[in-house]
Structure to design on (223 residues):
């Protein structure tokens, strides 16, 4: 069986050190051969990203440079229309029919899985690794439809990720990294003062790119 590929989607608006540490920790804990970042072009479950797609992709590329086992995939940015997860996984499955794929989902997002487009098909295409969040009781708060899938698919053994290409559910605790992209954007809107305030929360190369391209700055006429 081929080694497991972790799939990490999101807006990455901007990517920050919390994203990188999560990917690196999961890769080590679950023996992923790689974690692939897939920036969303037009996310269906949240407000439109602030930074244009090309900039968000460039920031991910900068952030993962020099980190073995971290990859980036631009297919959702290049695809027209909404960035639904099932078509992305279907394309990846077409590329590698027998490789185990593991979709990385935060616990809060996982609880909303039944609102996702064609969500039941996710399990035919990939495993799902639910990242535990402080204060989110996954097992005790599952919607009925999701509880049935949890009962069928949940495993405490990470070996379930290598025993088949798809279909298992794993709950994985990681080190908490309380870094918020929205809080970073709010600081960056302040200009040079905000740049200084977020130093260390993003890779230096990403922060320099943001400064150079004047991303997340307030408009001159903003209140």
């Amino acid at each position: 069986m081929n080694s497991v590929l972790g799939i990490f989607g999101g807006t990455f608006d901007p990517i920050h050190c919390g994203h990188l540490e999560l990917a690196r920790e999961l890769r080590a804990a679950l023996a992923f051969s790689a974690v692939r970042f897939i920036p969303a072009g037009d996310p269906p479950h949240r407000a439109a990203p602030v930074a244009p797609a090309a900039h968000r992709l460039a920031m991910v590329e900068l952030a993962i440079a020099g980190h073995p086992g971290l990859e980036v995939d631009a297919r959702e940015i290049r695809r027209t229309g909404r960035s639904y997860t099932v078509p992305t996984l279907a394309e990846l499955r077409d590329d590698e029919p027998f490789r185990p794929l593991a979709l990385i989902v935060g616990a809060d997002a996982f609880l909303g899985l039944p609102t996702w487009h064609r969500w039941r098909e996710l399990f035919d295409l990939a495993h799902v690794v639910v990242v535990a969040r402080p204060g989110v009781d996954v097992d005790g708060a599952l919607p009925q439809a999701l509880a049935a899938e949890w009962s069928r698919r949940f495993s405490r053994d990470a070996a379930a990720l290598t025993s088949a290409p798809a279909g298992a559910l794993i709950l994985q605790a990681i080190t908490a990294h309380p870094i918020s992209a929205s809080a970073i954007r709010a600081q960056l809107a302040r200009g040079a003062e905000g740049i200084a305030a977020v130093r260390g929360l993003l890779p230096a190369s990403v922060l320099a790119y943001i400064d150079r391209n004047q991303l997340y700055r307030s408009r001159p006429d903003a209140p």
About this structure: Confidence is low (pLDDT under 50) at residues 219-223. Residues 5-172 form a domain with the Rossmann fold fold (CATH 3.40.50.620).
